[in-house]
Specification:
519 residues, mainly beta, Jelly Rolls, Methylamine Dehydrogenase, Chain H, 3 domains, 18-stranded antiparallel β-sheet, 6-stranded mixed β-sheet, 5% helix, disordered N terminus
Length: 519
């Protein structure tokens, strides 16, 4: 064992540890990191000692004895070779560190408090490939498989216990093609294959009376409201949430976002309209206190439309600074907007559906269904619409609201969201389930458990979705295959795919050739 002292700064140690992980070139980066550690930690009998807490850099007096000076507050670092195995797939080094509590200048086993690994990456040109002519094969981590069966698909089962970063490659060669099988609890992210979210949902944040949620176009920035509570934002697709407007307890009921997530607008029942230009960090009260029920935004956040229950529709062309009342007083419950803000749809509770093609200056009542309308969504161009009723049906339109088609049996529908092209939809039912559609609402698939779902939002491509539960949590979903043994990806002799394990049972598609299909 080679003992290194004195103290290695956090910066240098972090530099060394960042070299750990897969990918070609890992050997060189790991060696460079260890070289930096060794150069910084060589003991010459004097120099810089460990920093006392709360002070700047402490320098020892010159040591003229030639004997190393021991210090019980010194942090020692030891590096030893690590063979290829569970800790480092292709070998590397183990780095131990801890305080020299007995001041003997040796990092004893009982003094080790932290152990990390500097791992070599996959050696260039040595990724192993296995020819498979049989019907099945159990995949091993960091291995490629060539499917050469001429009669039937070669079924490649994913590793049951992969480590984060492990890679599996499959390439077709035989007429039978190939199929990737999953183990229990596993799924494959399919966004790059054109897949949609909704099959697998992950709970986030805490139990609150979540009332609404909105998303940026790419699904990375989210904003959610809690009834009689506050506003919360996320910049990592819902993994972590930050409380905003902590001094504003309101009856938050509606929220909308610009395409980039920077401009937000929220409405509170019997309060005002509130806008933010910095992704929710600061909020400004706008307009007067009214029974605001919903709000919608154009992609650039400049054109807004808001509905007042028992009042009028209001529009803004300056991101909410000024507002203009439109149409007559009705029991307006919901509004939705095209991406440019020119085509709008508004729902009258117990009445008709209204549309506008001039950013809300004039409105046209559409004949057809009348009922307890509750929520609506629009495609980016405003041609495909979906509207739903509380204790009623769900309706779709492909001609900007001129005609409507009913779908699904009666549900207590609470919210609906659409992809930009209007093909991928997500709707939630109160005291019901989440429902998804990949054909513009013609067919719907129930997802997740029965909960008091209250709001939903989608990314532009439908690859990321978020839904909120009143009295429950926030749930996020990414495009994946069906979980467990029911899910799979298949390809022909001309297709290929490269998967990497990213944790929590999820593999992601790094690259693909051809047109693999999934379920």
């Amino acid at each position: 064992m080679r003992t290194l002292r004195p103290f290695i700064s956090t910066l240098l140690l972090s530099l060394a540890l960042s070299a750990c992980g897969g990918g070609g070139g890992g050997d060189a980066s790991g060696a460079a990191a260890l070289a930096a550690l060794g150069a910084a930690a060589t003991n010459t009998g004097g120099g810089t000692n460990a920093e006392p807490p709360g002070s700047g850099t402490y320098t020892e007096p010159p040591n003229t004895s030639g004997t190393p000076v021991a210090n019980p507050s010194t942090t020692l670092v030891s590096t030893v070779s690590e063979a290829a195995g569970a800790n480092c797939a292709y070998g590397g080094s183990r780095v131990d560190r801890g305080l020299d509590s007995n001041a003997n200048n040796v990092l004893d086993a009982g003094e080790v408090s932290v152990t990390e690994y500097v791992c070599n990456g996959v050696p260039a040109g040595t990724f192993p490939w296995v020819d498979v002519t049989g019907a099945t094969v159990q995949a091993e981590a960091n291995t490629g498989y060539v499917a050469r069966n001429e009669a039937a698909p070669v079924v490649v089962t994913l590793p049951a216990n992969p480590a984060i970063g492990d890679v599996v490659k499959v390439r077709g060669a035989g007429a039978g093609g190939w199929a990737i099988a999953q183990n229990a609890g596993q799924a494959i992210e399919t966004k790059t294959l054109g897949g949609m979210a909704g099959a697998r949902w992950t709970p986030r944040e805490s139990d609150r009376n979540w009332s609404a949620v909105a998303s940026s176009d790419d699904g990375s920035k989210l904003v959610a409201t809690a009834d009689n509570g506050h506003i919360y934002t996320s910049s990592d697709a819902g993994v972590n949430w930050t409380e905003r407007a902590a001094d504003m307890d309101r009856n938050w009921i509606g929220i909308a976002s610009s395409a980039d997530g920077s401009k937000l607008v929220a409405v509170a029942y019997n309060y005002q309209i509130y806008t933010s230009a910095d992704s929710g960090e600061h909020w400004t009260a706008r307009e007067s206190a009214r029974n605001w029920f919903w709000v919608a935004s154009s992609a650039d956040g400049s054109r807004l439309v808001a509905a007042v229950a028992g009042g009028q529709i209001y529009t803004s062309t300056d991101s909410g600074v000024n507002w203009t009342p439109r149409d007559s007083k009705r029991n307006w419950y919901f509004v939705a907007s095209s991406s440019d803000g020119s085509k709008l749809v508004a729902l009258e509770r117990g009445g008709q559906v209204y549309t506008s093609t001039d950013s809300g200056e004039s409105w046209i009542p559409r004949g057809g269904p009348v009922g307890p309308w509750w929520a609506a969504a629009s495609s980016a161009d405003g041609s495909k619409l979906v509207a739903l009723q509380w204790t009623g049906q769900l309706y779709t339109s492909t001609d900007s609201g001129m005609s409507w088609s009913p779908h699904r049996p009666s549900r207590d529908w609470a919210s609906v969201a659409s992809s930009a092209d209007g093909s991928k939809l997500v709707a939630v039912a109160n005291a019901g389930q989440v429902y998804t559609s990949s054909d513009s609402g013609v067919n719907w698939t129930p997802q997740e458990a029965t909960r008091d779902w209250y709001g939903a939002a989608s990314s532009n491509d439908g690859g990321k979705m978020v839904a909120v539960v009143y009295g429950g949590r926030i749930y996020t979903s990414i495009a994946t295959t069906s979980p467990g043994a029911e899910g799979s990806i298949s390809g022909t002799a001309s297709d290929a795919i490269e998967l990497q394990y990213v944790g929590e049972g999820i593999f992601t598609v790094l690259t693909h050739e051809g047109s693999p299909t999934f379920q």
